[in-house]
Amino acid sequence: MSPAILLSFLIGYFLLLIVIAFATSKKSSDNSTFFIANRNSKWYLVAFGMIGTALSGVTFISVPGEVGAPAGNQFQYFQFILGNAVGFIIIATVLLPLYYRMNLTSIYSYIEQRLGHYSYKTAASIFLISRTIGSAFRLYLVVIVLQRFIFDSYGIPFWATVLISLLLIWSYTFKGGLKTIIITDTLQTFFLVLSVFLTLYFICSSLNLDIPQAFETIKNSGYSKVFFFEDFLTNGFHFTKAFIGGVFVTIAMTGLDQDLMQKNLSMKTIGEAQKNMFTFTGIFIILNIFFLSVGALLYVYAAKNGIEIPLDHITGKPRTDFLFPEIAFNHLTVVPAIIFMLGLTAATFATTDSALTALTTSFCVDFLQMNKGENQNSKESVNKRHTVHVAFSILMFLVIIIFNAFNDESVVKGIFKVASYTYGPLLGLYSFGLFVRNRGLHDKLVPFVCVISPVICYYLNANSASLLGGYTFSVELILVNGLITFIGLLLISKKTDQQTKF
Known about the structure:
Blueprint: H1 3-24, H2 31-36, H3 43-66, H4 77-101, H5 109-114, H6 117-149, H7 158-173, H8 178-206, H9 211-219, H10 239-255, H11 258-264, H12 270-305, H13 323-330, H14 334-366, H15 379-406, H16 409-421, H17 423-435, E1 439-441, H18 446-467, H19 477-491, E2 493-495
Antiparallel strand pairs: 1-2
Helix pairs in contact: 1-7, 1-8, 1-14, 3-8, 3-12, 3-14, 4-10, 4-12, 6-7, 6-14, 6-15, 6-16, 6-17, 7-15, 8-12, 8-14, 10-17, 11-14, 13-14, 14-15, 17-19, 18-19
């Protein structure tokens, strides 16, 4: 597959996004438009567009790739997805009504009103750190794919590829913000969904399979086991761990995350926001089934055609993330390769553009207090918001360059895992605020609790086999993290006569 053809479609794709950005921000590009789209978003556009934000390019290449991983993953990821679905329902019925009742722009304003100034700043800081690292990591994994299959052919260095990617994202988000993101994410989700279905079609055609035959092939492939109930202590794929982890990861990393909640807060009523979440949940589940199916068929296709899992040029070990792009770019025809590239790009940039907008919103509202006062849409405030937007783009660039400098996949994944630990304290903070009545906090001690909890969890995760009779943590560790934070907050709490309203 010619890199020139792929590059030309990539350029055309971004030109389309930039045109949409200028069209949506032509009438207004003030802070109210940027932060919450003037609370005038259509629920069905948000529901569909959130798919691209929630999945990311990592899901696009990693979920199919891990189906045939040596660890025996198969379809175990679907256990986690079922937990996600329950988490989304809890968000729609518990958290969204709270956010709408308080008329929030930043969801962390709840913490300020319920727990105090230092708790509020801690929650907002957790989000800024976690989302910056997480989004940079997601973009990094996809940029190395684009680098390997397109930009290396032109001698363009990795840092330049990253810089170009972030400049393109900045170019179509800096004016319209959330109002633009809702439209562009809808378009990008369309390309993402289209690419999944067309990839299935092209692989099935290559294997001479119709739909019933494809279903039977997946079922009999040795990759389709969904539920794992063996060896609870040591098996990280055990249903209980995956399902419970899926529930609480979703609550913490979606319901307590400014990025995905910002879109929900852009609608007129709580009813529309809940309708959005329920619709989104259904589409999310179905699409992940297709991602897993793509993975099984990729391994069947690879086995039939003698294709090896590509090696990582850093570690020299097989890397399942590269199997999907390897087959799409080098073993299928031109059309599937272009569709794959558009789907991968759409998934990645739908996540990153949304994150940059949410990071800018959180910093402007939670630290610069731009939502307060009469001049929130003044020229000075808008210019300040532009500066913050540029600053976060530069920060993300630096974080990605640092990831690449480690030159060690395991270290980079470790950093991402540490970033996910930080959502545990958010779970603890919101749980205390929602479920503990007539008690406040020694507010200045909250940051220490929120730092100590992830450290304890890191120690527990590293030594669980010896400390807990062979038990191995999986994604359910976030629940332990939140529980430790909750207990820490109880220890620094104080009785108050004031009945909480929230």
